[in-house]
Design brief:
Length: 93
């Protein structure tokens, strides 16, 4: 299963590298685009849940790394200005 990282910039300017066990994130986010904070959280929640389920289908268990990444995103979002934008900077690979 191809894993990937997506690099974001939070409204406060902090940058973060995020992990997904699947390329499905590219179906929900676009490099170079900015998203309202709540929209970004919802899109990543959907994508990471799908990615975790893909791992479950293939290996028989959910992806704890995807769920941990989602928890980090949700926690970080709580510390941001609710009117701010999250920018998706790049995808790797």
């Amino acid at each position: 299963m191809p894993e990937m990282h997506f690099h974001i910039r939070w409204p406060d300017g902090r940058r973060e590298a995020c992990y997904s066990p699947s390329l499905v994130v590219k179906d929900f986010l676009t490099a170079g685009e900015s998203y309202a904070l709540d929209d970004f959280v919802e899109k990543t929640r959907t994508a990471l849940n799908i990615a975790s389920e893909r791992v479950r289908e293939k290996y028989g268990f959910a992806c704890s790394s995807a769920m941990a990444q989602l928890a980090r995103i949700e926690d970080a979002a709580k510390r941001q200005d609710s009117g701010g934008l999250v920018t998706v900077e790049t995808f790797e690979p």
